[in-house]
Amino acid sequence: MATVKDGQLHIRTEYYPEGYHGNGKPGWYTCGIDTNDLFEPTYGYFEARCILPKGSGMWSAFWMISDSMAWKPDAGAVEGSGEDGAEIDIFESVFYESKTPRCVSTNIHIDGYGEFHKSTNVCEPFILFNDPYENFNTYGVEWNEDGYIFYINGIETGRSGFGGASKVPEYLILSVEVGGNNAEPARDWTGGPLTPGCEVTDFIVDYVRAYRYK
Questions:
Q1: Is the pLDDT confidence value at 9 over 80?
Q2: Within a domain: 106
Q3: What is the rounded CA–CA span in Å between residue 51 and residue 42?
């Protein structure tokens, strides 16, 4: 579900009535790509230039996460802090069907995904002049010891030190997910189910760049 065409990454979301390559499991297929065990920086500036996939009921994202956040138990390691790892959502596109379809969401999550999970919405910036579903835009975050500063097209959109900035290595992820349960798309926070006519849609990534402090 991921190919490189003309130097750009295409993460495809597509419905396969007979299952992927006829595997007998019909449904929506897509994927994510990460740098886990390959590139896990601590602090820096991280940016992606991309076109978002068209259609409600799904969301593309450029984000970072640590193993300590992804695998944190419900208790024991939970400290009410993000310093031991966080989910940093540089952007999520979940507003295709809404009244503000050119809007993206930026969020921070800490303390795992169990009962102690905490999160904050940093901002939901509106991209005024450059439709993100038709044109390339850049989405970036500066992560330093004090917190996170988020950017779109080089313009600051929000900043936060929620939970205390992560002080551990984090890896980068580009992903698309389809809303619903048990492989059945359904109306949820993404707006879904998927928009008719969007049986095939691509998340197109021109580049991902990472800069570290000296």
A1: yes
A2: yes
A3: 27
Q: Return the C-alpha torsion angle 62, 137, 165, 63, nearest 10.
A: 0
Q: What strand order describes the sheet that includes 171-178?
A: 32-34, 171-178, 58-65, 87-93, 105-110, 118-123
Structure tokens at 38: 């390959």
C-beta separation of 8 from 206 below 8 A? yes
Residue 189 lies in a domain: no
Token reading at 188? 């949820």
Query: What would the two tokens of residue 43 be?
Result: 């602090």
In angstroms, how far apart are the furthest CA atoms of the chain? 52
Here the CATH number for the domain that contains residue 118 is 2.60.120.200
SS3 145: coil
What does the pLDDT read at residue 44? 98
Q: What is the pLDDT of residue 214?
A: 66
Instruction: Please answer whether residues 52 and 84 qualify as being in contact, where contact means their C-beta atoms are separated by less than 8 angstroms.
Output: no
- The reported pTM is 0.91
The boundaries of the domain holding residue 133 are 32-179+207-211
